[in-house]
Amino acid sequence: MPQLSRYSTVSITQLSTNLLRTINNQLLFYNSTLGSKPGAFFIYSIEPFISTYFDKSQGGAYPHVPSSTPLFPLLIQFGWESSSDNNAFIDGLKSTTNTILQAALDDGQDIGGSKQIRYPNNALGDTPLEQMYGDNVAKLRSIRQAWDPYNIMYLCGGFKF
């Protein structure tokens, strides 16, 4: 049977003991509740980046912020085998994403609302464009209209502008 999986992401500004504890507790929780399902796996990838990694950015689709407040994408991935488990795993993925975001907010990280930019490569398929590209959405739509007026790229998968 083919392996199914989905990704999600939370953009954070720092790692704290509380946030790491929350991530660990989420892993333990989902392993205990969904871990016995065929093909189940749970990945929480903590990737510390150098805080100046966007300093030389000249812009792009993804909204790069200065090194004083860079956002670091935290990758979350759930996997399973049976499509009959889709809802349980996707709902769990959404729930764990919100729980981790709330823990970061409780830590005082200023990442709520429009500041919570989801890294597009790891975002769930129903993530609104504004949550991935911020204020760049209007510009990206105008670029798409200028360069793809017949919507050829709409024939491909992915997010639609």
Structural features:
single chain, 161 residues, alpha+beta, Alpha-Beta Plaits, 3-stranded antiparallel β-sheet, 34% helix, 14% strand
Characterization of the model:
It is a single chain. This protein is α+β, with helices and mostly antiparallel strands. It has one domain (4-136): Alpha-Beta Plaits. The chain is 34% helix and 14% strand. The chain contains four helices and three strands; from the N terminus they run E-H-E-E-H-H-H. The protein has helices at residues 17-34, 86-106, 130-133, 137-147; strands spanning 4-12, 41-45, 72-80. Strands 1-3-2 form a three-stranded antiparallel β-sheet, covered by helices on one side. The radius of gyration is 17 Å and the shape is flat. It starts with a strand and ends in a 14-residue tail after the last helix.
Write the layout of secondary structure elements.
Blueprint: E1 4-12, H1 17-34, E2 41-45, E3 72-80, H2 86-106, H3 130-133, H4 137-147
Antiparallel strand pairs: 1-3, 2-3
